From TrEMBL:
Record family assignment: Belongs to the chemokine-like receptor (CMKLR) family.
GO cellular component terms, semicolon-separated: plasma membrane
PROSITE patterns xrefs: G_PROTEIN_RECEP_F1_2
Organism of derivation: Sphaeramia orbicularis (orbiculate cardinalfish)
Gene3D superfamilies: Rhodopsin 7-helix transmembrane proteins
Protein name (Swiss-Prot/TrEMBL): Leukotriene B4 receptor 1-like
Sequence ranges assigned to domain G-protein coupled receptors family 1 profile in this UniProt record: 44-299
Gene of this entry: ltb4r2b
Membrane-protein topology: Multi-pass membrane protein
Lineage of the organism: Eukaryota, Metazoa, Chordata, Craniata, Vertebrata
Stretches that traverse the bilayer: 29-53, 65-88, 108-130, 142-164, 195-217, 237-260, 280-302
Any matching Pfam family: 7tm_1
Transcription listed as a keyword: no
Amino acid sequence: MSNFTRSKVTNITNPEDDSIVSNDFSTSLGALILGLVFLLGVPGNLFIVWSILARIRRRSVTTLLILNLACADGFLMALTIVFVIYLAKQTWIFGDPMCKVLFYLCNANMYASIFLITLMSVHRLVAVVFPKKVMVVASRKIVRRVLVCMWVLVMLFALPSLIFRDVREDYDERKKIRLVCAPNHTLPRHVRFQYALETVSGFILPYAVIITSYVLILRRLRQTKFRRKVRSENLILAIVVTFGLFWLPYHVINMIQVAAEWYDDNSPTKHKLDHIWKSSRAVTSALAFISSCANPVLYTFAGKSYIKQNGFAFMARLFEGTSLDSGVNKKSRSGQAENMALSEANSTNNTVSAVKNGT
């Protein structure tokens, strides 16, 4: 008996016997979204990487985090062409190893993106709210160690997507055999474990840290001498809302799928919940991909005021303005940190104004 035949027999009792390519409308829309994401995200993130590596000599903590985020997002964007082909053909043609590895890398990118955005938020919090500690806890050496630990955690958290996925035979609406790269959860608790882990550790907890950080930052900025000039509310709200809009639908579908596994197979509620997540998984996954190409667009609008003066170096000029740890004044550590915190507040104002001018 072949591997695909064994998968097909096993699939009779598999609660996920319908794949994400079982709905024509959802599949077509998902392919369209991913195609646009590929065309925008790959050159956008490559430009960010080039700007940082070729144009910036002294890289701040913020710049290092942006570089890691752009590398992760750019790599993911390069993989989208595979999923466009998968959704367009509605059959998996790349083999079982590629099925496991590609979805593992996508899941790892999800964790990497949100963890890096969270680190940016915490770094900004330390710089603005605790300026005297920024030189100690946010040095580039410490940040590099934190990044190494973060990537190790990312690889570990993404393991379920490597374990619980394979290629198997399925039937389309015309009863024609096709190959699908789909989850292979054989027990309901496997579904609950994987998707609850993704949502809690990859969305709820980091998102709570991000919101808390920016609330504390706003409270601190309103107490500084730049109080009348601070308009950070709009920029911070845009960052938080944009991230939530792209990722919330994906994690809602995760929770719907988890909830469905608590009901009996013959329950009408289970059938309704299964229909919802099966028909929506492709679109919500494609929307989540958009978050990886949104940052270059945001940076472009934020740095629009530099384009005329700096040309293709405008992105580097924008990132240089975010530097918090490249102090050049020969003052005491505490005084230097305080100046950098005020510089961060001023930089935030300039960025907000640039975003408004760009829009």
